[in-house]
Input
Amino acid sequence: MLTDAEIERIRKSANIVDIISSYIPLTQKGKNYFGVCPFHEDHSPSMSVSEEKQIYKCFSCGAAGNVFTFVSEYENVKFLEAVKIVADKCGIPINGVITRSKSKNNILEYDIMALALKFYQNNLNSKEGIEAKKYLHERSLDDEVIKEFSLGLALGQDYSLNKLLLTKNYQAAYLIKLGLANEHNGYLNDTFKNRIMFPIHNLEGQVIGFTGRIYHDSDQAKYLNSKESIIFKKGQILFNYHRAIKEIKRKKEVIIVEGNMDAIRMYASGIKNVVALMGTSLTKEQVSIIKNMRSKIILMFDNDDAGEIATYQNGTILEEAGLSPLCVRLSGPKDPDEYILKKGVQALEENIKKHTSFLEFKLKYFKKDKDLSKVEDLASYLKEIIKDLKNISDPLTEELTLKKISEEYQVSLDTLKQVLAKENIKKNSLNEPKKLAKINISKYDKACSNIIYFMMNDGIFIEMFKKELGYFNEKKYRSIANEIIYYYEINKKIDLASFISFISTKEYIYDDAMAIIKNNKIATLEMDNFKEFILVAKKEMMRQEINDLKKQIATTLDANEELALASKLLEIKKGCVGNE
Output
């Protein structure tokens, strides 16, 4: 682990303008630099980067922080991994050791799954695994691929996983909850038997589940998947993500396929920027993962009706999230796995290069099962296109599409525009009733947040806080203020960029502190404003203390204690801000 001093040395050696401009274009305007914010759908430069303060701030979505927080959010990595990325970009040697972060929660569950994986791997490499290994070799999965993807083998009852885990003092209840075992007539049985095992990993690379495939003639289902558990939520991961993410970032391109074997075959064949769905449709969590990749998205699903439907459904999900997916539709072999085996990886790469836009895909998709020589089918086709266009926010794409179908089918452009206008009216009327409830933030909370923000930026406000207020009643504000004062007393100065680095590993305050930074809209730090915030906070804190004393006076049965409380109450009222 790196020390605070080491992190600060790296931060001071890295110019935030140079680092951020390696991700997005920046233009200098006066003292600051501006660019299109990558953290929301930004169509005009709303992100400001201060070279003097070494911080960035988006005036639209509120994203803010120092060089490390930018890289952390942009690359979707933990803070210390972002530190390493910045150090590497600047050629700064690191004395400490940084490894990819692993979850600190559910350690027992992860340990069980890791042991299960080793058990399955050992089975495959034993004499009992000869038949299964032969099957894999016949499927053109050599020993190197088997090792790379940690493939294993679940055997019958004589080689029971649950027996091994029970001898390691893991409780049966855990094995059942993780989907590794099930109970029947009072006996514990392995969930997976006589199947080749494909481990499923979370985003950090920890084993969280398995897919078991039969490898001999059987009337059982071809695939059996782990049930969802406390650590396995299939809607929150993408298969092969932990291996592919480095290549995805390098190529700025991600290929999304349907099946695990498609991803394995492509990755093993050298196309390493590939992930697979964990179901038929993308979830909002998976869309968020894809969005954070900030890469070109290519959908390449199976060459059948189901694959075509999946392309439309998932492409629409991504489009509604503000993304612009591309599509590859294969011909001949059913899926990428089979395509590589029959036609070779080079032929697949050529297909990937010839990808089409999602709009082009939809123009073909809407023609399906329609005879456009018939008026009713042509009208239905054009209506589908126009109905779809209302979801596209790009006016240029909208205009070009309408012109294209107008010329191709000899339909008046004005008529098409009128139909689209009616669709937009319907869309707007449907959206009108949906109003977001306003979050009521008290004047006191605003004052406390502003006091904290001022203190993060300049020691003069810390001194004023200690003199005029000294503490906060609420634990959230009190904890952050204590860390600010501690940092200031140790370093004899403070600035926002360095303080963000200091709290990066302090999980108990980091999120709250960053929320204050992101939500603050104050452009200049004026002492008069700070004093006003102090007065608001002081008044509310005194009011709370007075109410507490009144309750104690009303409930005490001790006359002496009541007198002491009343005296204390009088003293507080004398020094109270404003009229009470």
